[in-house]
């Protein structure tokens, strides 16, 4: 019988079975040399610029001779380039193509939603995701904790810039370029004019800025803390935090929000809800390529 038509022997796996064995191989059975070589690429990605061989090897935790062997292969693949004059190494065009392809496939809101359940277990309070919409910071995802006090907010709600943690987060961290400033400043002025007309006595809301100086103080504190907070500002008896998530270009991609009744939500800057929220936001920023 021709070899092409020979049935497999009893001890010989058929082609589909052999492929199944490869597909189900444990993830830990990788190629160590690939993982070791990646440390060089990782070191270059974190460096402010091109590196000499000795510095690159030290950053990757290997000898210069060992690093050089990897770098020769990486240069052939276009992952690394070497300046002929300075002899310094830097990331190459293949690394750029990989990075751009990865960025094009990232959905910030999807990544944030994937982390909501874990964050909910850590905080025990209502969580939300907000992005900048046509009218301002807009709620696009909402998950209530089982035991939390219901908060009268809905998906699609646009949050005020000065009396919500979400708004303060966007107002504080979006102003990185002139276009963002031009969008935000008129909105801040309009809200401030409205707040100035509110009566000071008998008002159930507190922590409400009434002057441009107070607005700047609130936004500066938000930047220093790395997270926005309100207590009794948006709604009486309600507190909340909003942490910024940045993309690879350093732009504010979204805000992660936790809020609840001040009777149960720890509103301290360094309390568990704020700490967990900020940790999650920073990890999301890293996943989006933000340094």
Number-wise, the strands total 7
- Based on secondary structure, the structural category is alpha+beta
Share in β-strands? 5-15%
| Helicity, as a percent range | 40-55%
Strand order of the largest sheet: 4-3-7-6-5
- Describe the sheet with the most strands: 5 strands, antiparallel
Task: Identify the overall geometry.
Answer: elongated
- Regions with pLDDT < 50 over 5+ consecutive residues? 1-25
By DSSP (H or I, 4+ residues per run), the number of helices equals: 10
Spell the H/E element sequence. HHHHEEHHEEHHHEEEH
- Distance from N terminus to C terminus (CA atoms, Å) equals 63 Å
Query: On the 0-100 scale, what is the average pLDDT?
Result: 83
The radius of gyration is: 26 Å
What does this structure look like?
The chain is an alpha+beta fold and 291 residues long. The chain contains ten helices and seven strands. It has helices at 15-23, 32-46, 53-60, 64-77, 93-104, 108-123, 165-173, 178-196, 212-225, 272-287, and strands at residues 80-82, 89-91, 126-132, 137-143, 228-231, 238-246, 252-261.
